[in-house]
Amino acid sequence: MPEPSEIAGLRTELEKRYGELREEIRQELLRSDEEHFIDLAGQVRDLEDESLADLLVDLGLEIIDMHLAEVREIEAALTRISAGSYGDCMDCGGEIETDRLEAHPTARRCWDCQSKYEKNHAGPNHSTL
Questions:
Q1: Sequential pLDDT tens for the chain (129 residues)
Q2: Residue 128 counted as domain residue
Q3: Would 126 be classed as within a structural domain?
Q4: Is the whole-model pTM more than 0.85?
Q5: How many domains does the chain have?
Q6: Which of 26, 91, 99, 122 could make an S-S bridge to 128, C-beta 3.0–4.6 Å?
């Protein structure tokens, strides 16, 4: 388990990233406002242009969704720090390795439990059968 000074450093890192993400989301929303789909669609000349306009809007929304998911992970990690449970594996209750937390400060599982989780829960590139 990380030492209190290591946890303080990780908290600072998490808070910094949280601020960066909030700014990135704000910038993406501002960009989105500037490039409304209606404006893009009004400029299209054919179906290919319309498809590109759709893709650009979807891409902007996907970026925002990814940032929001990371914000939620950071908030959860900060909550665990405040509750004193940061560094505890949510599956086995054991300690999450310090080097894992340094590499992935929002980690909720130790290496072993994360490996098992990934094997048992199909991702986008894995079959569910």
A1: 688 899 999 999 999 999 999 999 888 887 776 655 555 555 555 555 556 555 566 667 788 889 999 999 999 999 999 999 999 999 999 999 999 999 999 999 999 999 999 999 866 665 544
A2: no
A3: no
A4: no
A5: 1
A6: 122
